[in-house]
Specification:
The protein is built from 7 helices and 6 strands. The chain has 197 residues and is α/β, with parallel strands linked by helices. Helix 4 packs across helix 6.
């Protein structure tokens, strides 16, 4: 079974992380390792009125169902499996990715498990996808993202397209989640692709 790490941080647009988990929780061919920062939990409440207790986490509180293949790790658990390079994974998605998290990853500073797991992906040359959601972007933000891009990190901003003729906000959320999953060659079936019927 393939393993994938998902980190949710305190940037706006946590709905992308929730939708991603809804899709991944339905797949029996993937083991998903989830970690949520304190700021991520705060954003879930502020934006979606979803109350998540990161100390006593239950997946059902986040996406409405439980899934055995989704394994939760507390953000302070530096002894978690995903904190070690010897624990093999396909890579990691940080969605949404706050600018503080971008800066920590770019500087190699591991202040929580999300930072450490991302650092492991970089050092082990595994796929790391960050989904920043900030506007406008300062020169510091851009320099940090450029630094990460130059070492192979996929910088995938939450910028939905319009060529699929979206009619709802859900259509736009699904577009970004599709782009994220494409990085791992996972077909979500959430949106119509360019020039495909």
């Amino acid at each position: 079974m393939k393993r994938l790490i998902v980190g949710i941080t305190g940037a706006s647009a946590v709905v992308y992380g929730v939708r991603l988990l809804e899709v991944l929780a339905k797949r029996e061919d993937l083991e998903v390792h989830l970690t949520i920062s304190k700021s991520g939990a705060r954003a879930l409440w502020e934006e979606l009125k979803i109350e998540v207790d990161i100390d006593n986490f239950r997946l059902e509180s986040l996406i409405g169902v439980e899934a055995e293949q989704v394994i939760y790790h507390h953000e302070s658990d530096i002894g978690a499996s995903i904190a070690s390079g010897s624990f093999r994974t396909e890579g990691m998605i940080v969605v949404p990715c706050s600018m503080g998290t971008v800066a920590s990853i770019a500087a190699g500073i591991s202040r929580n498990l999300i930072h450490r797991a991302a650092d492991v992906c970089i050092k082990e040359r595994r796929k790391l996808v960050i989904v920043p959601r900030e506007t406008p972007l300062s020169s510091i933000h851009l320099e940090n993202m450029l630094k990460l891009s130059r070492i192979g990190v996929c910088v995938l901003p939450a910028m939905p397209g319009f060529y699929h003729f979206p009619k709802t906000v859900d259509d736009q959320i699904n577009f970004v989640v599709t782009k994220i999953l494409d990085q791992f060659e996972i077909d979500s079936g959430l949106t119509q692709r360019w020039k495909e019927e």
